[in-house]
Amino acid sequence: MSGADRYRDLQWVTSVLPHRYPFLLVDRVLELEPGKRVVALKNVTVNEHYFQGHFPGHPVVPGVLLVEGLAQAGGLLLLHDHEEREGKLLYFTSIEKARFRRPVVPGDQVRYEVEVMQKRARYAKLAGKVMVGDVLAADAVITSAMVDR
User: Fold this and answer.
1) Global pTM?
2) What is the pLDDT of residues 49-60, one digit of tens each?
3) Which of 77, 106, 130, 139 has the most CB within a 10 Å radius?
4) Residues 6+ apart with CB under 8 A from 54
5) 3-state secondary structure of 1
6) SS in 3 state form for 47-92?
7) What tens digit of pLDDT does each residue of 118-128 get?
């Protein structure tokens, strides 16, 4: 498996992130530039558990889950090569400038594009976009703190 291919599958994603179904919001990673950026995918299906109540007859992905998806993609970027990642978690410390521009619905393929704005040993500030095709669905600036599990 080439260096780029090792980032592509769900097995690799779950080896880095502690999240599991039904809260794992990244299906695969398309690109990863260590310390710089990540591009990840989520295929949205009508079977997502939150569609039972948000909203019956008019399913829409909750905006907060789009931001969480950005954070999980960012977590892959920040933790993938961390020597002690099994003993670490990333907590949100802030969400800024969140904008929701287009509803995300069943059948959409979400592309999370996340870039590092600032990074320190335990702190990171990331800029993220949620794309559906070539259309911007949401964007936000998120910060996180790395803590011991």
Assistant:
1) 0.94
2) 999 999 999 999
3) 130
4) 60, 61, 62
5) coil
6) CCHHHHCCCCCCCCCCHHHHHHHHHHHHHHHHHCCCCCHHHEEEEE
7) 999 999 999 99
What letter represents residue 96's amino acid?
Answer: E
Residue 101: both structure tokens together: 């521009």
Q: What is the CATH number of the domain that holds 30?
A: 3.10.129.10
Q: Both ends of the chain: CA-CA distance in Å?
A: 31
Number of domains observed in the structure of the chain: 1
CA-based radius of gyration for the chain: 15
Range of the domain at 136: 5-148
Across-strand partners of 138?
A: 100, 130
- Residues with a catalytic annotation lie at 54
